[in-house]
């Protein structure tokens, strides 16, 4: 088996446990209706300092730094939305919807990376979408 499969399986297991822990946290802690914007600003300043330090440690070029910033913003926003979804929804259903990210990544990889999929792989993506749709409806 290819080495990347072991990494992916380990990541999937760790993220699964993380989702359960996040559900337990979101059940017991509700985000404030109106955040204190001073603290939000301070958090962003802290993240910017952390990002700057990481960029210097990793010796990122300007273009790489832009991609890293986009990844950070999208990941943090996505994490916040997962938290909100877990406050209201069942963890199994929320994570099933999140797994549709696989289909989105596949479609984006066709457009931006030139990936091609076999008929079997395309059918599997369609079944993944249908299964999730049946679970959610």
What does this protein structure show overall?
The mean pLDDT is about 85. The chain starts with a helix and ends with a helix. It has two domains: about 5-90, no CATH class; about 100-135, no CATH class. Helices cover about 85% and strands about 0% of the residues. It is mainly α and about 140 residues long. It has six helices and no strands. α1 (about 5-30) packs across α3.
What is the makeup of the main sheet? none
Helix content estimate: over 70%
Q: Beta fraction of the residues? A: under 5%
What is the total domain count? 2
Count of discrete alpha- or pi-helical segments spanning 4 or more residues: 6
Give the averaged pLDDT, no decimals.
83
Which class do the helix and strand fractions yield? mainly alpha
Instruction: Encode the helix/strand succession as letters.
Output: HHHHHH
Global shape: globular
Radius of gyration: 18 Å
Question: What is the terminal-to-terminal distance?
Answer: 36 Å
**Tally of strands:** 0
Q: Which spans of ≥5 residues are poorly predicted at pLDDT below 50?
A: none
Note the quaternary state here.
Answer: single chain
């Amino acid at each position: 088996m290819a080495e990347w499969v072991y990494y992916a399986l380990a990541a999937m297991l760790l993220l699964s446990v993380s989702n359960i822990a996040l559900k337990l946290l979101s059940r017991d802690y509700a985000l404030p209706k109106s955040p204190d914007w001073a603290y939000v600003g301070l958090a962003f300043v802290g993240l910017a300092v952390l990002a700057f330090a990481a960029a210097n440690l990793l010796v990122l070029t300007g273009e790489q730094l832009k991609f890293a910033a986009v990844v950070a913003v999208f990941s943090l926003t996505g994490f916040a939305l997962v938290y909100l979804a877990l406050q209201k929804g069942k963890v199994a259903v929320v994570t099933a919807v999140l797994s549709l990210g696989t289909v989105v990544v596949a479609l984006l990889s066709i457009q931006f990376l030139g990936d091609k999929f076999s008929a079997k792989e395309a059918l599997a993506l369609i079944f993944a979408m249908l299964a999730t749709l049946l679970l959610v409806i």
